[in-house]
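To fix ideas, we now present one chain and its tokenised fold:
***
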Amino acid sequence: MTPLPPDWQATFDAYNAALTRRQFFRNSGTGLGVAALASLLGPRLLGANTASADTLRTAMTEPWKIAPKAKRAIYISLIGAPSQLDLFDYKPALKTRFREDLKSYLGNQGERLTGMTSGQASFPLAPSIFKFAQHGQSGMWISELLPYIAKMSDDLCFIRSMKTDAINHEPANQLVYTGSMQNGKASMGSWLSYGLGSMNEDLPSFVVLHAKHSSPFSNVQAISSRLWGSGFLPGKYAGVSLRTQGDPVLYLNDAPGIPRELRRRMLDGLGELNRRSYEQIGDPEIQTRTQQYEMAFRMQSSVPELADMSGESAATYDLYGEYSRTRGSFASSALMARRLVERGVRFVQIFHRGWDQHGSLPRDLAAQCKDVDQACYGLVQDLKQRGMLDDTLVIWGGEFGRTVYSQGTLTETNYGRDHHPRCFTIWMAGGGVKPGTVYGETDEMSYNIVRDPVHVRDLHATILHLMGINHHRFSFKSQGLDQKLTGVVEANVVKGILA
């Protein structure tokens, strides 16, 4: 290792002394603001003759906090948008309208069409070919494609009246997972990590899993890290992706010949340099880097234990299904999600791609459902058996719905469906939602919402509410604006689904 020059300290201090104009005004403003606040509050700043100092500090610095129903959340993100018509939104009357041309109807609705169907000469109505049955005490209609999810219908809360603003995948996914169709926004998991912090200092508060799909037919969309990125929030709040092959996290092991003690001394020295730099420059990203170095050091011990599933019982593997022993499968990812939240991870997001059935829907949708059905059942039941479901929120859904008309050729056994933002279905479980509930209703063609619409922003407000956050007051200053997950448009907590 090359030794530092004798004058390194003077050079370092001179570099840090080069305070920029922006840093000067930021630091000055902060100092003046604190002084003004102290003069206004007086003894109350220290908690004298009022509530405790901790309570006052929370009210001042975290005014968004409310009593939570859930401590943690698992979001099962089905990229590509599963068909509500073929899974949950049962429309038996459509059987008699097979091949009815909806072209004039769509014209009257002012429908936005994608480039994939806008040139079709006709828009033939395509009823679902799958059988539906009622399940549980609530009598929920669920497709034959999801027999395991049907078995736990009384544990679930269905929202059949979801809607969104986007008609194509990338903007729709950004809206669902970041609250905006614009780039550069913070993801939902990052917001929760920022607002609620960590419950385990040895693991990230936000972890992302990318499940491999077993179907060879699936149309798999590419997704970007924007869906789990921190955007304008400090980088430490971004989701940490665990790999499905090799080490769960790259460079987790120390290099050959580098003992643990030497790595600790190196980090301590680097931390001291960063501390001095932060004191003079004030760039919050310096603190972020230091915290990430320390997290990586702690993860060297915590992640190998997390990834070692040899201690899971045969009964647990049977609960999640045959693929739960195959690393990287959806079933294995669902089991890993339980292990993560069990160890204090705040938000786990499982991405499962391949739900974009523009053609050959009966074949491909069946394969996709088989991939996730039992594992979703296993996850919810596993949490329930361990006493964790009541304070763990599970969310299942895609970015929009699918059309009632067929894209491309329609036969009695085969069809495809295009994108449909006007209505779709998701379900939730645990964490303060009302089990055995169906909220919202669509018309006879699952085309428009006729009762209790729920916009994506309303879903965000509800998730924040269940996690103990008032979305009206939860913001972060960036580019001169108070940025929010729910944006500037009015969003409402869906009170009808709260337990």
